[in-house]
Backbone:
C-alpha cells in the first residue's frame, strides 16, 4: 500500500495472509464491521451490522414468576435448602424463552482477481498485510514477476461505507462473490469455556461444495454498477419456543473503476466457486467497492425501517466524482474522523521489534517486549472506536465482529461483567464520548425492566438480570445459577456513574438521574432483612456464575450484590443533591445504604464472597469470576488507603483465586492487582494475558473463543498502573512495573476532568503535566512524595 503522511507507528503487521478468522484484521465504524483476511487474489470480507439479531420485539417475562413464587424461593434459601431453592427458581422464575436472541453475521463478500500471468492460488512475493491503528485502514500488498498490487479497506463513519480499493501496475479482472452466513460451532451458553472454538475460516476453494443461499436471501444486480443482497432475519428458537425473525436486511455494493463492469442476476439456487457471483470487472487498473449495510431495526420495539433505501442512499452518498482523487477525499474524511478520537491519547513503552505481530504474541508471556503492551492498549482503543459510536449499539461480547449465525454465548450483552468491562478503559483513554451507546441501552432497559420489576418482584423502578439483547429483554435467562441475579441493572448504573465522574457534565447527569432513581427504587422495595439480624440483603441471588459448597449457586446477600447496591444508592443520593431534587428520597437512600450488611472477612483472612464464610469449601477455588472484589475494582470503596484491612483480605482472595483464568478473568485480576498497588503482580498477569494462551494472532482476546472484553479489561489495567484519581487526589505511577522501565504517555484522563502527560526513565518520573479546571486545588501523589498544588490560570500544573 502507498506510504502516506497520515500513517502512524501503531500498527499490526504480518508476512502471510490470515489462515482463519482469528488472524483476520477488524475494521468498523460502530454500525458496520468487517474482518479482512488479506488473501492475494482471493480476498474475503466477512461482514457484520450491529442490529442484525435473531427474533423480533418480544418480552420474556414468565407469567409464573410473581411475588409468590419469589417468596417461596426466598423461604427455601432462608431455611438453608439451597438446592431446592435453585430447582424451584428454575421451575418458576426464569424467562420465556429461556435464552436471549443472538447477534448474527451478514455473510461474506469474496473478491477474486484475475491477473495476467498469475493464478489466484499462486504464492505472492514481497507480501505484507497490516492494520494501521492511527488511520483505521487495513492494507495488503504483494508482488509477482515485477508487478505490484495493493489493497486497502476501511469503514467510514462520515460516509457510512466500507471501502475496499485495489490498485495494480497492470490491468486485471475481478469477480465479486457473496456467500451467506453459516452456523459455526458454538459453545454451551452456560459453560465457562468453549465446547469447540469458532470454525476456522476456510480458504476460498473452487472445489468447495458451497451450500445454496438461505431461504429468502436474494442477490441481484441493482443498476449497471451495483449489487443488492437482501434477506430476512433469523428466527429466535429456544427449545419449543420461537420468536419469529422480524428484521429484514440489505447489503448494497457499488463498484467504481476504470475498467468495464458487467452485472448479471445469478441463479439464486446455484452455488459457484465464488458463492453467488453477480458482478465482474475487466481491464481495470483500479477498482473500489463501496459497501453499505442496514437492517429494518429502528428501536427495540420498532422494525419498520427500509434497509434497501438506506443502502442505496449510502452507496450514492459520496456526492463527488469517484475517480482516484475522489476516493482519496473519501479516505481523508474517514481518517480525519478516526483521528479525532484516536489522537487524543498516546503511549510509548519503548521501540517495537521489527517482527510480525503474531510472532510477538507467541513470545508475549516473557515480558521482554513492553512495546507489545503499548500496542495492545492502543488496539483496545481502536476496537472501541470501531465498535461503539454515538448512535450505534454498544460493544457486545465480540464488539461488532462475529463470524456466524450461532456465535459464542449469542454474542449478546452479558451484564454480570462483560458489558461493563468493555467500557472500563473508555474515559481514562480519552474515549468517554463512546460510552453514549451504553447509556442509551440502559435507558431502554429502564423502560423494559419496569414491567419485569412489577410482575416478578412487585416492585417499583426497573430491574435487569445477567443478560440482555437487541430487544432489551430483562427477565432471568439461561438457568438459576446464572440468571437469578437481580443486580445487572445496578452494575450498569454504577458503570455510568463512574463514567460521569470523569467529566461531571451537568446535562449528562440530568439524563442519567432518572435511570439511577428507577434502579434504586427497585432495591428500596426488594431488599430484605437478613434472618441473622445483620442488616439488609438481596434474596434470592447468586454470586455471578459461581457455586457455593451446598450444591447450588442460589443464596442470599452475596458480597457483590451488597457492594453494588451500596454504590448505586449512594450515587443516586449524590446525584439528587447535585441536581437539588428529591431530598427526602436521597435521605432514605443514604439511610438504606448504611443498613446493608458490610463486607466481611473470613477465617482464612479472605474477603468473603458470600454472606457466610463458605469460601474455603467452594467447589471452584480458581473460578474465573472475582465478583466479591468489585468493591476494589472497579468500585473503589475498598482501597489500601481507606480500608487497609479489607484491602488485605482482598489480596488473600486474589491469591486464592490464582492469576490466570479466561481472557477477561485474567484482565480483571490485572486490574485488581494494579488498584491494590502491586505493579509487579499486575504486570506478570498482563504478560500472561498478551501471550499465546489468551491472545489470538490478530490481538483479539482468546477467552477462548474470542470475547472482546479481555482486550478492554487488559487496557484498563495498563492505564491503572500509570495514573488514577478521586475527587481529591491524583496518583501518578501508583503501581508502575519494572517491566516498563522507560516511556511516556499523553492524554491519560482521570476523575474530575483531569488530563495527564507523563515521562519516565529507568523507573523514575522525569516529567509530568496535569491539566484541569483553573484554580483547582489538588493533592498529587508520586512515588517520591505528596504535592499540594493549585492548577494555574491556564488549568495546568507542571513537574520537571
Residues:
Amino acid at each position: 500500500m502507498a506510504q502516506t503522511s497520515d500513517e502512524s507507528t501503531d500498527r499490526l503487521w504480518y508476512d502471510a495472509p490470515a489462515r482463519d478468522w482469528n488472524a483476520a484484521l477488524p475494521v468498523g465504524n460502530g454500525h458496520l464491521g468487517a474482518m479482512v483476511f488479506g488473501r492475494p487474489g482471493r480476498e474475503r470480507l466477512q461482514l457484520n451490522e450491529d442490529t442484525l439479531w435473531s427474533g423480533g420485539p418480544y418480552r420474556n417475562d414468565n407469567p409464573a414468576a410473581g411475588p409468590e413464587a419469589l417468596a417461596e424461593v426466598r423461604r427455601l434459601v432462608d431455611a438453608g435448602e439451597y438446592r431446592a431453592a435453585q430447582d424451584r427458581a428454575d421451575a418458576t422464575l426464569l424467562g420465556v424463552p429461556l435464552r436471549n436472541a443472538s447477534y448474527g453475521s451478514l455473510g461474506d463478500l469474496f473478491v477474486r482477481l484475475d491477473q495476467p500471468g498469475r493464478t489466484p492460488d499462486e504464492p505472492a512475493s514481497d507480501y505484507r498485510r497490516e492494520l494501521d491503528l492511527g488511520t483505521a485502514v487495513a492494507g495488503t500488498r504483494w508482488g509477482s514477476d515485477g508487478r505490484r498490487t495493493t489493497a486497502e479497506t476501511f469503514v467510514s463513519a462520515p460516509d457510512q461505507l466500507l471501502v475496499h480499493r485495489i490498485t495494480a501496475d497492470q490491468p486485471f479482472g475481478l469477480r465479486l462473490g457473496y456467500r451467506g452466513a453459516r452456523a459455526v460451532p458454538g459453545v454451551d451458553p452456560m459453560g465457562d469455556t468453549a465446547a469447540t472454538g469458532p470454525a476456522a475460516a476456510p480458504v476460498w476453494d473452487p472445489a468447495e461444495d458451497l451450500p445454496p443461499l438461505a431461504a429468502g436471501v436474494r442477490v441481484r444486480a441493482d443498476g449497471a454498477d451495483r449489487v443488492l443482497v437482501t434477506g430476512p432475519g433469523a428466527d429466535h428458537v429456544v427449545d419449543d419456543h420461537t420468536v419469529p425473525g422480524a428484521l429484514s436486511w440489505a447489503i448494497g455494493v457499488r463498484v467504481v473503476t476504470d475498467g468495464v463492469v458487467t452485472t448479471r442476476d445469478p441463479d439464486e439456487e446455484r452455488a459457484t466457486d465464488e458463492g453467488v457471483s453477480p458482478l465482474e470487472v475487466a481491464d481495470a487498473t483500479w477498482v473500489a467497492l463501496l459497501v453499505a449495510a442496514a437492517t429494518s431495526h429502528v428501536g427495540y420495539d420498532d422494525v419498520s425501517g427500509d434497509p434497501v433505501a438506506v443502502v442505496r442512499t449510502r452507496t450514492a452518498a459520496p456526492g463527488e466524482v469517484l475517480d482516484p482523487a475522489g476516493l482519496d477525499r473519501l479516505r481523508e474524511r474517514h481518517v480525519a474522523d478516526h483521528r479525532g478520537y484516536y489522537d487524543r491519547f498516546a503511549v510509548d513503552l519503548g521501540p517495537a521489534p521489527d517482527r510480525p505481530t503474531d510472532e510477538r504474541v507467541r513470545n508475549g508471556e516473557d515480558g521482554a517486549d513492553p512495546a507489545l503492551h503499548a500496542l495492545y492498549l492502543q488496539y483496545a482503543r481502536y476496537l472501541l472506536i470501531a465498535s461503539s459510536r454515538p448512535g450505534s449499539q454498544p460493544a457486545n461480547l465480540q464488539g461488532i465482529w462475529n463470524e456466524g449465525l450461532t456465535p459464542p454465548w449469542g454474542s449478546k450483552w452479558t451484564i454480570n461483567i462483560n458489558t461493563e468491562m468493555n467500557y472500563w478503559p473508555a474515559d481514562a483513554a480519552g474515549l468517554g464520548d463512546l460510552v453514549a451507546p451504553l447509556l442509551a441501552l440502559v435507558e431502554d432497559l429502564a423502560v423494559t425492566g419496569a414491567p419485569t420489576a412489577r410482575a416478578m418482584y412487585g416492585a417499583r423502578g426497573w430491574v435487569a438480570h445477567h443478560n440482555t439483547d437487541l430487544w432489551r429483554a430483562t427477565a432471568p435467562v439461561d438457568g438459576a445459577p446464572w440468571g437469578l441475579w437481580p443486580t445487572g441493572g445496578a452494575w450498569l448504573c454504577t458503570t455510568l456513574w463512574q463514567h460521569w465522574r470523569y467529566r461531571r457534565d451537568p446535562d449528562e447527569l440530568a439524563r442519567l438521574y432518572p435511570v439511577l432513581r428507577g434502579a434504586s427504587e427497585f432495591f428500596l422495595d426488594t431488599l430484605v432483612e437478613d434472618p441473622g439480624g445483620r442488616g439488609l440483603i438481596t434474596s434470592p441471588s447468586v454470586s455471578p456464575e459461581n457455586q457455593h459448597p451446598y450444591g447450588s449457586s442460589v443464596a442470599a446477600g452475596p458480597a457483590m450484590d451488597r457492594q453494588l447496591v451500596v454504590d448505586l444508592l449512594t450515587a443516586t443520593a449524590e446525584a439528587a443533591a447535585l441536581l437539588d431534587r428529591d431530598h427526602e428520597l436521597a435521605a432514605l437512600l443514604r439511610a438504606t445504604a448504611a443498613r446493608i450488611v458490610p463486607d466481611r472477612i473470613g477465617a482464612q483472612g479472605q474477603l468473603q464472597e458470600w454472606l457466610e464464610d463458605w469460601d474455603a469449601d467452594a467447589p471452584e477455588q480458581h473460578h474465573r469470576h472475582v465478583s466479591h472484589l468489585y468493591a476494589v475494582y472497579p468500585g473503589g470503596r475498598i482501597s489500601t488507603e481507606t480500608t487497609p484491612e479489607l484491602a488485605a483480605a482482598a489480596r488473600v482472595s486474589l491469591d486464592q483465586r490464582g492469576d490466570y483464568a479466561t481472557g477477561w478473568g485474567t484482565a480483571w485480576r490485572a486490574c485488581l492487582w494494579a488498584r491494590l498497588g502491586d505493579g509487579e503482580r499486575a504486570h506478570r498477569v498482563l504478560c500472561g494475558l498478551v501471550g499465546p494462551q489468551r491472545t489470538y494472532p490478530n490481538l483479539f482476546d482468546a477467552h477462548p473463543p474470542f470475547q472482546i472484553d479481555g482486550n478492554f479489561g487488559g487496557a484498563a489495567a495498563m492505564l491503572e498502573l500509570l495514573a488514577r484519581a478521586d475527587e481529591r487526589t491524583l496518583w501518578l505511577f501508583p503501581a508502575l512495573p519494572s517491566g516498563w522501565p522507560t516511556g511516556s504517555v499523553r492524554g491519560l484522563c482521570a476523575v474530575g476532568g483531569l488530563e495527564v502527560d507523563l515521562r519516565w526513565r529507568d523507573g523514575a518520573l522525569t516529567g509530568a503535566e496535569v491539566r484541569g479546571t483553573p484554580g483547582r486545588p489538588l493533592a498529587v501523589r508520586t512515588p517520591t512524595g505528596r504535592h499540594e498544588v493549585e492548577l494555574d490560570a491556564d488549568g495546568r500544573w507542571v513537574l520537571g
Remarks:
- The two ends are 42 Å apart (CA to CA).
- Residues 1-5, 187-209, 268-273 have pLDDT under 50 and may be disordered.
